[in-house]
Design brief:
Chain lengths: 155, 109
């Protein structure tokens, strides 16, 4: 139990540090970075739960660029914290064909896993992308959910 | 900010419910077919099947199950998914049942 708390604390600290560094970088480079990714907090799909009584943990992400982008690949990973290491749960990749204009976003809302039981588990998401912009490949750095969310959902 | 908040529009939330509910339905209704598919995947390491407009390819790659959904039309998006392989064979079969259902249930975005 104690080690679980320590593990959760270390993970939380790492996330906070990553987020702080990310925020600094994002502010400093926002005018330079061609693309921006946003990822949600891991959550239970509420609409599904209300309508069917079924539960699934889910994380969503989208990418938006200042310039027209093509061949966009948006990857979303779902992770859960563990006693010593965090565990990869599931990931999906959406490969968008054609050209996406600056006012549009490429979305990946398909990363979900069925809850097997009600065991409280802490989840977070990671998203990253690549796209062909202005004649070259651009890689968006990994973005983490801003909160590790404990959910009554064992997977 | 609501901790449950995602990025979906109301229309997308409806689509989300439909797709995940379909996934649950497939896990129950198509279970015997999925168990057969799991046996083929364990034996051969890969297999594929047509599902509507998408060719679904499954394979075991290192320590992960992987699926790819490749559209028949060049104008459609393609998708893929990966999950770490569980330890016991019973867990692996349960995992593949969900894995197959997810790839066949359709896409929210």
């Amino acid at each position: 139990m104690k080690t679980q708390k320590v593990s959760a604390l270390i993970t939380a600290l790492l996330l906070v540090i990553t987020t702080l560094i990310g925020n600094d970088s994002a502010e400093a480079q926002s005018s330079k970075l061609p693309c921006r990714i946003e990822i949600s907090i891991a959550h239970i799909s509420k609409d599904l739960w209300i309508k069917t009584g079924k539960r699934a943990v889910k994380v969503d992400a989208f990418s938006r660029c200042h310039s027209p982008q093509s061949k966009v690949t948006l990857t979303v990973e779902l992770w859960k914290t563990g006693e010593f290491l965090n565990h990869f749960v599931y990931s999906t990749v959406k490969r968008s064909i054609g050209i996406t204009s600056p006012r549009d976003q490429v979305e990946n809302f398909d990363t979900y896993v069925y809850c097997k039981n009600r065991e409280t588990t802490s989840y977070y998401g990671i998203a990253y992308s690549k796209a062909f912009i202005d004649g070259k490949w651009q890689y968006a750095r990994h973005v983490l959910s801003r909160i590790i969310n404990p959910i009554d959902c064992g997977t | 900010m609501n901790i449950d908040e995602g990025f979906l529009t109301p229309a997308q939330q409806i689509r989300e419910s439909e797709v995940i509910a379909e996934c649950f339905r497939l896990m129950q209704v198509e279970r015997s077919r999925y168990e057969l598919q799991a046996a083929i995947l364990f034996e051969k390491g890969s297999f594929s099947r047509q599902n509507g407009n998408y060719l679904l390819k499954y394979k075991i790659k290192d320590d992960r199950f992987v699926w790819h959904a490749l559209p028949a039309l060049a104008t459609e998006n393609s998708y893929s998914g990966e999950a770490p392989i569980s330890k016991s064979r019973t867990e692996q079969i349960e995992q593949l049942v969900e894995f197959f259902a997810q790839s066949e249930a359709g896409f929210i975005s």
